[in-house]
Structure formats: C-alpha cells, structure tokens
Amino acid sequence: MLKIYRNLKPYIFHIIGIVVLVFLQVLADLYLPTIMSDIINDGIIKENVGYIMHEGLYMLLISGIGAVCAVLASLLSSQVSVGFGRIMRNQVFEHVEGFSMHEFARFGSSTLITRTTNDVVQIQTATIMILNFMLRSPIMCIGAVMLAYSKDKKLTVLLLETLPVVAVIIFIVGKFVMPIFRQVQKKIDKLNLVLRESLTGIRVIRAFNREKHEKKRFDTVNGDLTDTYIKVNRIMAFLIPALMMILNILIVAILWFGSVRIDAGDMDLGALIAFLQYAMQILFSLIAMAVMFIMIPRAQAAADRIEEVLEVKPEIKDPVYSIPSGKERGYVAFDHVTFRYHGAEEPAVKDISFTAGPGETTAIIGGTGSGKTTLVNLIPRFYDVESGRVLVDGIDVHNIPQKKLRAKIGFVPQKSVLFTGTIADNLRYGKADATKDDVIYAAKIAQADEFVSSMKDGYNTMLSEGGLNLSGGQKQRLSIARALVRRPEIYVFDDSFSALDFKTDAKLRAALRKETQDATVILVAQRVGSIMDADRIIVLDGGTIAGIGTHKELLGRCEVYREIVSSQLSQEEMA
Fold it and tell me: DSSP per residue over 148-168, as a string?
C-alpha cells in the first residue's frame, strides 16, 4: 500500500498545509475545555457576569478559528484525495495499455475495470479519512490525555484503564473484517463480469429465450455479494455500540468518582467538567481511529489488487536501441517463425517462412484454428514469437519501437471495433489530422460512402457503443475505411470481408487493388472467391504451411487447398 502512496508527491505542500491546519484545530479544541473550566470556577460560581461575557467571547473566537481550520483542512483533503485518485486511474490505464494480449487474458477486462474504478475509489475514501481523522485523532488523544492528567492524576488512571479494552475490541473486529473485504473486491469483479456478459450478449440471450437463466445467474452473484456485505456490516455494527457503551460507562465513572473527589475538596467543579470533556475527546478520537482501522483493510485489499496490475512487467517492450529503417518500405518477412500461447502444449504456428512486398497481395487461408489470425497478430507485435524472426522493412520487429512499427500498418481486425462518437471521428482514429476529403475518399473505396451519405447527419452521425446501430457489413466497411485513411505501408485484413455480400466484396476488392498498388497487402480470408486473384496464397493446416503459390498452382499440388476450394466452388467455377 505504501508503494501506491508514493503518488502523493505532487501534493506534498497540500499535505503539509493539512498537517498545520489540523494541528491548529486540535489546539483550539483542546483549549476550549480549559476556558470552560475557568468560566465555571471564576465566573459562574463567583457570579462574575463580565468575566463570563469576556471569556465567552474568547471561547467563541477560539471555536471560530478551529472551525475555519477544519473547513480548510477538509477542502485540501478533498483536493488531495480526488487528485490522487486521478493519478492512480491514469497510472493503471496507461500501464494496462502496454499489456500484451496474454496479460489482458490473464486478468480479464471485468477485473481491470473494477481495479481502475471501484478499487481506486476505496483508496480515495481511505485517503480522505486518513487526512481528516488519522492525523487529527492521535494528536487529539495524546494532547487530551496530557491535559486530563494536569487536571486530575487519579481520574486519569481510570481513563487510561479503558484504553486497552478499546484496543482489544478494535483488533478483534479488524482481524475478522480484513479477509472479508478481500472477498468483497473479488465478488465485485464477478458481478461486473456477469453484468458485462449479459449486456454485450443481450441479442443472443433474447434469441435463445435465456432471460430467466441470466437473471438467475445475476441474482446468484448479486446475492453472494450482498451476503458478504451483510456479514461485514454485522461485524462492524458491533464496534460502534461497544465503544459507545464503554464511553458512557466511563462518563458515569468519571462523574461518580469526580463528585467524591469534589466532596473531599481534592477537585473543583470546573476541573471535573474539563476532565469530562477531555475524556470524551479521547474516546471519540479512539472511535474515529477504530473506523479508520476498519476502512484501511478494505483500502489495503484494493491497493494490493492495483499493485498486482502495476507490478506486471509487460512482455512486449520497446528496444533500448532501435535500428534505423533502411530504404525498404512495406516489406514483411517471416523467417522460420514458431509461436505458442502461454500454457499450450503445441505451437499455434510452426516454422512459418514467407515474404511479402509492396504491390503484392498475400492471402492466408486455412481451416478453423489453423493459425491464420495468430500469424497476422505477430506482424504488429501483439504477441512475440517463440523462435524465428518477423521482419518489417528488413528489420526484426523486436528492434523497432512499437509506435513506429504500428504506424506502418493499417490493421483491420477480425471483429470490427468502432467507438462511441461520429463516423468521421472513427475514420480519423488512425490519422487525427485527416481532412474531410480524405475521409470521404477512403469511405468511397471501402464502399461505405453510399450508406453513410444516406444517413440524416452523414459523416457526423453518432455511433452507439460498439457501433450497435450499424449492421455487421457496415461496421466492416468503416473499419476498412479507417485503415485506408491512414495510408500505411502495410495493410493487414484479418477476415475483414466475411460480412459483405459477393457484389460489395468484388467492388471493394477492385477499388482496393488500385488504391494499394504501392503497399503490401496481407489478407486473411475464409472465402476462396476473395483470394483467387492474390499474388501469393499461403495455405495453413494445423499451424504449418501446407502450400504456397497462386490459385492455379495450389489447385494442382496442394490437397488441403483443393478441399477448401471444392467445399465452396462448383467444378465449373474451379475450372
């Protein structure tokens, strides 16, 4: 948890200010019972109205100073905690952005969201309480004990005898609560996971009439979280009543023994009232610290989860020294590349070698699970190879900074991803300074201009989350247009034409062929019709290359390719 609080460095002067203000507030609060004692002894008992008025106004002034210090301290505490939360969220988000796909899979999106939001809020809440109460309570407690001792030594012994009882109660409650708070954060993760799956999969749920099943699934995790919270609250509900009972017993004891001492002439009434005030300040300080000791375990659990994310060292790192690019532009080469996913027994792709250059279209085809997507994911370095090399422009991708490498590539993923915002904003995602003409030109090549122009707001049409107000084919065409706006050296289309009808597919490929004459095109496809005219077709089977060549060459010598073609085309079309 201490590692997390290193991020408070920008607010060090705020914290110093808070300490000073808290100290002044405590001095004011500790001085008030002394004034009250003097008013009782020298004013009320002696019936000195002028003295009462003078000391009363002085008391109001001290109270006002204490109140102003308290307000300013709370204001600064709020600024520190909110700013600290902002720093933490930025730090977690930026760190997660550097994760490889393996690290994303290790945590899962639901827990990363929880850690960036809920866990940070828990630390924020604990921070403001630490600044408001944990600084104030120990100073108040120590000061009140010293002043109470100065008023009456024997009653102070009675007061100190209650402190171990309070400490034991706080320790027992904290011991039970700490592990439960760790469970709470994990169950919030699970709740977020179920909720996220239910919202993103709502069409499937309705199509299969599984609403009751999902409701039951959500009720189960929601009920589990609720039961855990109830368990925590039951334990915490014991704390405050127990401490208040001790406080009330202590007050009765002080009044009892204090009255005996007053009767014996060992103590005056003003001292007893002041002592009683100090006793209440001590006990309320202990109650505040008790609440803090309950909040800190939850913040500790949240901090541990955030540290777990921040301590992950991304597998994919930029080189210490990058190799400058040569004269080659747009060349991609795989040199005996082998890659396996973490925990897998067999490689996803094995001993892959091929080259692709500008002006060429290299198509990759194969059965489901043959490694097509895995292969193209190695080019922008979403994963690192196990052995062999992936070369871009003659340089191993390990020796190219990730930002520079990906700037060379226009990547269209298998699943079209659009963001909330206008269509124009989405198309400019890879090139923020693209002009309106650039956007429209790319949309025309991707066969998207027609349906975009037919919309009421055209390119200013707002897209819903994930582009849910568009069809699958429309999303694919906008994803392709987004890559075209960038005008990269290398285009990677990962099964990006699967949702298009044959007519649109043919028109789009014809337009692409003209646009990408000087670029390298790597195309993953399931449909043979989309790749028949490719300069090079790579056939994958079980992660290995079963054949490389043109459509005609592969028909003659590659059995795997012939099976794929015969499953999609008639004998006449094959001929």
Answer: HHHH-HHHHHHHHHHHHHHHH
